């Protein structure tokens, strides 16, 4: 169960929010405060998973409080509440780390809906952390005498991953392999370069003329998008058949956005006409790169 902290200079709002959270079974309120400076102290002492914080407070506003909390190492999630509709102010709140925004006056249905989404995201984050820890443990199991271990190539490492996702034979999978080979050779940072740069790098690997690099890059982008969508469809189909299937439990939360998986499952289950759909290509490539490099490191 999630723990919550509430920071709002309006005592009535604090009581309403606490009642909605606890009566609705959304979590437990472990600390409340009537100002930003007081909230800073309370939140650092109670360290709740989620902070519901007012944007405008007299002594220290919500944005400043969030910034100060982050500087002191607090890593909870933030939900902002406010009466104002100033887009610039709301934009600053999101930049400071706010993930959701609730409009005052407080509405029970809206609060429950937003905090339920926060709960879903928290569960996904926890699953990702558990998967990462499991991958680390698995990599340790592969350690052994150097003479008895043969390092696999990037393509050999990717083969079972692509097979699990049902895309091993897709044209775009060859582009994925080219991208991963290039990243593991030339890119050492945790993040990956912009997608356009990746696509054009792969185009050059295909030895096209420089004048045609941009055109071929767009073709690479389309092939990869179709392949990633095919992977999403395959994983969603597995989840519909068996929600506890190890492949679904591993790939669905790790490689795809939760809402995209859920929408695809609904589309399949209710026999909707397939939509063009959306998928987070950047996330897919980032996770694939991290998984490939983890497996490579385990074989050294």
TrEMBL record:
<dbReference type="InterPro" id="IPR011006">
    <property type="entry name" value="CheY-like_superfamily"/>
</dbReference>
<feature type="domain" description="Response regulatory">
    <location>
        <begin position="3"/>
        <end position="119"/>
    </location>
</feature>
<dbReference type="Pfam" id="PF08664">
    <property type="entry name" value="YcbB"/>
</dbReference>
<protein>
    <submittedName>
        <fullName>Response regulator</fullName>
    </submittedName>
</protein>
<dbReference type="Pfam" id="PF00072">
    <property type="entry name" value="Response_reg"/>
</dbReference>
<keyword id="KW-0597">Phosphoprotein</keyword>
<dbReference type="InterPro" id="IPR001789">
    <property type="entry name" value="Sig_transdc_resp-reg_receiver"/>
</dbReference>
<dbReference type="InterPro" id="IPR013972">
    <property type="entry name" value="YcbB"/>
</dbReference>
<feature type="modified residue" description="4-aspartylphosphate">
    <location>
        <position position="54"/>
    </location>
</feature>
<dbReference type="InterPro" id="IPR052048">
    <property type="entry name" value="ST_Response_Regulator"/>
</dbReference>
């Amino acid at each position: 169960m999630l723990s919550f902290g509430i920071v709002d200079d309006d005592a009535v709002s604090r009581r309403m929010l606490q009642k909605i959270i606890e009566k609705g079974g959304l979590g437990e309120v472990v600390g409340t405060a009537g100002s930003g400076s007081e909230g800073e102290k309370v939140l650092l002492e109670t360290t709740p998973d989620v902070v519901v914080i007012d944007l405008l407070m007299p002594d220290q506003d919500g944005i400043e409080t969030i910034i100060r909390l982050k500087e002191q190492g607090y890593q909870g999630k933030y939900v902002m509440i406010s009466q104002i509709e100033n887009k610039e102010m709301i934009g600053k709140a999101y930049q400071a780390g706010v993930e959701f925004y609730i409009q005052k006056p407080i509405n029970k249905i809206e609060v429950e809906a937003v905090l339920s989404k926060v709960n879903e995201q928290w569960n996904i984050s926890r699953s990702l952390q558990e998967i990462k820890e499991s991958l680390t443990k698995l990599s340790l199991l592969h350690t052994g005498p150097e003479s008895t271990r043969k390092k696999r190539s990037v393509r050999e490492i990717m083969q079972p991953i692509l097979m699990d996702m049902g895309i091993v034979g897709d044209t775009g999978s060859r582009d994925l392999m080219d991208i991963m080979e290039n990243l593991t050779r030339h890119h050492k940072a945790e993040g990956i370069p912009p997608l356009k740069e990746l696509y054009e790098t792969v185009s050059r690997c295909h030895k096209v003329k420089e004048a045609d690099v941009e055109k071929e890059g767009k073709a690479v982008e389309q092939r990869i998008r179709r392949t990633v969508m095919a992977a999403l469809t395959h994983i969603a189909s597995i989840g519909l058949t068996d929600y506890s299937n190890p492949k679904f439990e591993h790939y669905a939360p790790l490689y795809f956005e939760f809402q995209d998986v859920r929408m695809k499952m609904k589309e399949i289950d209710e026999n909707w006409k397939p939509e063009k759909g959306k998928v987070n290509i950047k996330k897919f490539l980032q996770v694939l790169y991290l998984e490939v490099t983890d497996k490579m490191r385990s074989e050294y």
